[in-house]
């Protein structure tokens, strides 16, 4: 069995790390280069960098900042935000990213998933899905959670997998930033129906929440932001705890 992964996430706005609740009420959380380096040194398994307003503002992600973060870390690095074509992927890989994460552009142009997988390999293509539980089921959103789409979470996740995505980063918008635990039922359903890794996002508040995401949600990785940015959970202590709980983790 592959070791479970702990992934800090840098949500970037105007060149600074920010964190909100339910995708709004953003507050600053520090310098992305310093945070990235700290997480790399603390034993994080990977780092995710999301330029959260790039798609909404219709611009490319900050390549120079990606280069600076990449230069200070020694762990796999995923970058998302404002990626619309293969040239964007090429630019970010050359800047130091190992993988790219696409969300809005994948919903608008699903063929982009096939193209990235074909040109760069499945392992490079992470599809992020931001979803919210609505009266008629889980609906996917784009532009940083601003726009509801007609895509249903599980059917879209299946299509994404079939098109060649290497991983899915699933964020429950209802759980984002509220620190009450991950959306474990939805995670479990995704993990059970798909053969590609599922990264849990949205809801981390305690070490037990990470444990539950792995055991109840069957997630392959757990991503969090504020609990790491504001020192509420130390990565090394979290990993020791998970190991004691019988979860295979890289120490």
Features of this protein?
251 residues; alpha/beta; TIM Barrel; 8-stranded parallel beta barrel; 11 helices; globular
Write structural notes for this entry.
The structure is a single chain. This protein has 251 residues and is an alpha/beta fold. It has a single domain (5-244), classed as TIM Barrel, CATH 3.20.20.70. 37% of the residues lie in helices and 28% in strands. It has helices at residues 32-42, 54-57, 63-71, 86-94, 104-108, 111-120, 153-163, 184-193, 207-215, 226-229, 235-244; strands spanning 5-13, 16-21, 24-30, 47-51, 77-80, 99-102, 125-134, 137-142, 147-152, 167-172, 198-201, 221-224. An 8-stranded parallel barrel has the order 1-4-5-6-7-10-11-12, surrounded by 6 helices. Helix 1 (32-42) packs parallel to helix 3 (63-71). The longest helix has 11 residues, at 32-42. The protein starts with a strand and ends in a 7-residue tail after the last helix.
């Amino acid at each position: 069995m592959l070791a479970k992964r702990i992934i800090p996430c840098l949500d970037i706005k105007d060149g600074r790390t920010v964190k909100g609740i339910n995708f709004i009420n953003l507050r600053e959380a520090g310098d992305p280069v310093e945070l990235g380096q700290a997480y790399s040194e603390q034993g994080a398994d990977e780092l995710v960098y999301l330029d959260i307003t790039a798609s909404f503002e219709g611009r490319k992600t900050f390549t120079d900042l990606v280069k600076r973060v990449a230069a200070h870390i020694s762990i796999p690095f995923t970058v998302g935000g404002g990626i619309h074509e293969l040239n964007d992927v090429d630019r970010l890989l050359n800047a130091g990213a190992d993988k790219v994460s696409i969300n809005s552009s994948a919903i608008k142009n699903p063929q982009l998933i096939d193209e990235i997988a074909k040109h760069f390999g499945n392992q490079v293509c992470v599809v992020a899905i931001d979803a919210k539980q609505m009266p008629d089921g889980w609906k996917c959103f784009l532009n940083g959670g601003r726009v509801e789409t007609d895509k249903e979470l599980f059917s879209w996740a299946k299509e994404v997998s079939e098109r060649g995505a290497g991983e899915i980063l699933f964020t429950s918008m209802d759980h984002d930033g509220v620190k009450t635990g991950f959306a474990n039922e939805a995670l479990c359903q995704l993990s059970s129906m798909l053969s590609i890794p599922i990264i849990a996002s949205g809801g981390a508040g305690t070490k037990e929440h990470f444990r539950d995401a792995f055991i109840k949600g069957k997630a392959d990785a757990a991503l969090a932001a504020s609990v790491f940015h504001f020192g509420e959970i130390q990565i090394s202590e979290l990993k020791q705890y998970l190991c004691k709980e019988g979860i295979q983790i890289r120490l």
